[in-house]
Amino acid sequence: MGEAPAFFVDNLQNGFSTGFGLKSKGFETFTDVGDKTFVIGGANCDSASSVGIQIYDKSTGKWVIPTVLGTKPKTCKGHSAILLNEDRIMISIRGSTPDDCIWFLEVDTEYVKEQKKDFGTEVVAWSKGVTGEAEKPVVISGPSGVGKGTLINMLMKEFPSMFGFSVSHTTRAPRGMEKNGVHYHFTERNVMENDIKHGKFLEFASVHGNLYGTSIEAIEAVADSGKRCILDIDVQGARSVRANYLDAVFIFICPPSMRELEERLRARGTETEEQILKRLRNAEAEIEQGKSSGIFDYILYNDNLEECYENLMELLGLGGSAPINQKPSSKVIDPPSNHSVSKINNKMVINCETKEVGNEAKNLIILDVLSLKGGAPGRTRGLNIHAIDLFSDGLNGIHELS
Ligand SMILES: Nc1nc2c(ncn2[C@@H]2O[C@H](COP(=O)(O)OP(=O)(O)O)[C@@H](O)[C@H]2O)c(=O)[nH]1
Ligand SMILES: Nc1ncnc2c1ncn2[C@@H]1O[C@H](COP(=O)(O)OP(=O)(O)O)[C@@H](O)[C@H]1O
């Protein structure tokens, strides 16, 4: 049993001295991780970007402003913070909406370590907690014209509430039927490059002369809907996603032959002759890498479409008597304004107090740390939460909330 070294500061006056020589704006928390103190908050009700992060490095005596990845919570009513597993800080937000109250600031996870190397700066990454038990994302790669889009469409059509498509950004021009925001976010190169520089992309690659990339927001949007995320990305992208520790199933789709691939590309009729030739030239290298790089968990041959689709369903656990249109729950608890958080073994205990006139209640919300899955980049899934009402039920009154 033990308390993590974090504490909660609330209702501070402007200009409060934190003891670090930092001027507090109120609502900060201070969490020690090794030699560093993470100061989270500095809420300003007028500001949309209300949750700031600063790091005090005790070994150098210096303040550092880190690169912040992922979508952050918005709050101006305060929060509590507690260290979890020495690599992330759990934040519970006061007075937030029920689906927005538990967040994680990753400070030393494998993903963050990798990003620190890339950015050459201190990096932290936000990840919202969701109760949804949505399974691992599915990464699908393969050469142009092999049938990735066709297979993904079949899957989304048959299981519309189970899968959500990660809408990539691209600098290529839209094809006739393609809709902005549905098939791709069509974008200008300079805008996309700027967003990449600011850490908004999980991965990106230059493919057939255009820039393509998966934004962290695209993954988060699917996770928020409680669905299983499908990514249609090239082999370079799949490699980056693996390196970025996104816990996913990686599937490579192979054509029966190069000749068949060429026929499909020509029959699709969406590319110029020059573009078709470029795609075919790239296909050989992609197939080579797809088969030998060790990135992919499964290789599927798309010869007969129906058979390939059956195989895809099988390896996604949807073969035979698969549950149709099963949608995971996305319910999350709502800690009231007054609460504090502590850690006991593998449980986080949120101690809530409600003080209304004539109605004073106290209850505990218990969060099982071992059930947490995923994390940045994307959401932290599997918030397994129980509430204990100390007044009416006594300590044995456990309500399952997820
Ligand atoms: N790395 C990466 N590749 C992507 C992304 N979105 C699409 N791609 C890949 O870019 C390639 C070209 O896609 P597209 O222009 O739609 O043509 P298609 O493959 O012929 O349908 C395909 O290999 C896609 O898998 C992305 O976000 N990241
Ligand atoms: N197994 C298959 N047999 C014949 N044609 C196929 C098969 N799978 C897909 N196609 C066709 O091949 C073309 C390319 O498929 P598409 O899904 O656009 O490929 P990708 O998304 O991998 O570029 C489409 O016209 C599609 O209808």
TrEMBL record:
This enzyme's EC code(s): 2.7.4.8
GO molecular function: ATP binding; GMP kinase activity
Highest taxon of source: Eukaryota
Entries under PROSITE patterns matching the protein: GUANYLATE_KINASE_1, GUANYLATE_KINASE_2
Top enzyme category: transferase
Keywords: ATP-binding, Kinase, Nucleotide-binding, Transferase
Database matches in SUPFAM superfamilies: Galactose oxidase, central domain (SSF50965), P-loop containing nucleoside triphosphate hydrolases (SSF52540)
Name listed for the protein in its UniProt record: Guanylate kinase 1
